[in-house]
Every structure is written in structure tokens, then in C-alpha cells.
Amino acid sequence: MIYSKSGNILHCKNRDGEWWHECDERGNRIHSISRIDWLGYASNIEEWREYDADGNEVHCKDNDGHEQWYEYDTDGKVVHYKDSNGLEGRYDKEKNKLYFKFGADEEWREYDAVGNEVLCFAKKIKFGDTKT
């Protein structure tokens, strides 16, 4: 392995593959390249990441065009997640799922004061059905 002066891994190679990382001044990985050969399946993945002023990852994009976005509360906990495949989630400070969406399927949830789920409403669309 090769490390930066600040102790971040810049290059790693083992029997499963090889990884290269570029880090910003805070040690966050901003660019990564992975060449993996695991159980006979080879893949090459390249990722670019962006961070907010607090060091939280807010955006990630890979070489296949898949993207992910994150929003955080003041305590640094994820409160909203969205990706380019249509997956979306909203969470409260206790990491309870409040809203979840994948494609046309959606769920809304509510919790009582001690964190018990008290309501779940789901809208499911059957495969091939275009009506909402």
C-alpha cells in the first residue's frame, strides 16, 4: 500500500484487485479508480465525490453515469438521499425512514415519540401498469 503524508491510502493492490485514490486537503476521497477481479468477474469503476464545508459527502458520480446525492441535518446525519436510478429516501434525526421511493412505488411512515412506527402508507404500482 502507498499512503499520503497525512496517512490516507493512495494505492492498494491485493489478489482481488487494485485501487487508486485522490484525496482533498481534509482527507476526503475525491477521485477513485478500482480495478477488481473477484471470483472471475472483472470490473473497472471510477468515481468522483464532492463534499460540503463540514466534510459530508453530498454528491458521487461513477463512470457509468450513476449519481447519488445526500443532504444532512446540523448533526451530520443523512436526512435525504436520492440517486439517478429513481431511489429516494427521507429520514428523521433518529434515522427512521419517513419517505421511500423507488420508481413508481412510494412509502410514507410516521413514528410515535419513542420511535415506534405507527403508520405506513404505501403506493405500489404493478409491473407493466402505467396508471398511478
How would you characterize the overall build of this protein?
The chain is mainly β. The chain is built from no helices and 12 strands. The protein has a 12-stranded antiparallel beta sheet with strand order 1-2-3-4-5-6-7-8-9-10-11-12, with no helix packed on it. The protein is globular.
What are the main properties of this structure?
132 residues, single chain, 0% helix, twelve-stranded antiparallel sheet, mainly beta
Q: What is the C-alpha radius of gyration, as a whole number of Å?
A: 19 Å
- The helix fraction, in percent, is under 10%
What value does the average pLDDT take? 88
Biggest sheet record: 12 strands, antiparallel
Oligomer type: single chain
Shape: globular
Helices and strands: which structural class? mainly beta
**What's the arrangement of strands in the largest beta sheet?**
1-2-3-4-5-6-7-8-9-10-11-12
User: How many extended strands?
Assistant: 12
Percentage beta strand: over 45%
Unreliable spans: none
Q: Give the terminus-to-terminus CA distance.
A: 52 Å
Order of helices and strands: EEEEEEEEEEEE
Helical segment tally?
A: 0
Brief sketch in words of this structure:
The chain is mainly β and 132 residues long. It has strands at residues 2-3, 9-14, 17-23, 29-38, 41-51, 57-62, 67-72, 78-83, 87-91, 97-102, 105-111, 117-123. The chain has a twelve-stranded antiparallel β-sheet, with no helix packed on it.
